[in-house]
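Hi team,

Below is the intake form for Glycosyltransferase from Desulfocurvibacter africanus PCS. Please confirm the fields before the structure is written into the shared record.

FORM ID: S-0412
PROTEIN: Glycosyltransferase
ORGANISM: Desulfocurvibacter africanus PCS
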Amino acid sequence: MRIMQVVNIHPYNVAAWYALTLSRLLQQAGHEVLVIALPDSPSSRMAQKMGLRVESLELNTLNPLAVPGLYLRMRRLVRSFSPHIINCHSGEAFLLWGLLRKEFNNFRLVRTRGVQNLPQDNLPNSILHRRVADAIIVTNSSIGAHFRNLLQVPKDKLWVICGGVDTQHFRFDPEGRRRVRAEFGYTDQDFVIGLIGRFKESKGQREIIRSVASLLHDFDLHHIRLLLIGHSDALDESRIRAWISGHGIEQITAISGVREDIPACISGLDAAAIPSTQSEAIARTALELMACGCPTVASAIGALPDLFSAKALIPAGDVPALTVTLARLAKHEHIRHGLRQDQLSTVSQLTENDFLLQTLTVYESLLS
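The structure came back. Fields below:
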């Protein structure tokens, strides 16, 4: 197949990761892939680094005078590449792709929705999603329910594909565990809880700090340690350190900074938390933690309820519930073992190959 992946997402965020990972997998499987990206964007540079063919278009322009010229450039690309499938991963310019779909009538148009900021129930959105798109891929079932129940998208046009993880790269690394624990001064008796994520309010660093402080001071779990695997983003590291100091856990908390050895860092943990308070439309970090066999608890938002059993889920923002759940993990090896086995079983069906095959099923159904 010849497939255009439209990745007009400026930052290399989790939605861009989803789109470019899919592009790489399709290319490795022998399909001809063309990525359409924003000029000189982090996503465009990452696509090139992955060895993908990239064309740049200002698809997110707000200048109405630029739209006719943009449409002509899009038209030329469609004519020269002659795609079987165009898969759009962002809503900007989707209407223009729809007009090209109607003009050429020789490709199928797919819209992937991987953000929790959901479209409103109005006539334009109804037309775009029910008539213009040939198929809609959503990254979790809660987004799917919105499209099905509010926008009345037919069931046969709606597909849930969570993504996939490279289980050859993300797996338990015993040597990495020894190295990382030695680096941060952890002993075999320490119980290390980790959180992976850039420093943002929505990622739950404040919640995990409060929870670990309670484990230490209220539950008397003096072997608890906290490893924040991340770095400054919307929140500066100094803000995180102030929270740590304010809760009296600076002696048991470490911040990793930027790391290239994420599988080893995960392997160095005894448990992990994803206490996010918003979004998690695409659960990349959850898949990586699960693939490494790290027992993980998570907020019941976004894609996370699709992946985790009820016993591993907590209400978003509920620090007491998070604390009680982590205390059980710290005290009871059999609970950790049960979560680990459940999560390894789940992720065994969410590999990169599963991601590829599920997406090809959608594409092939449109072309048959």
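SUMMARY LINE: The chain is about 45% helix and 15% strand.

Thanks, M.
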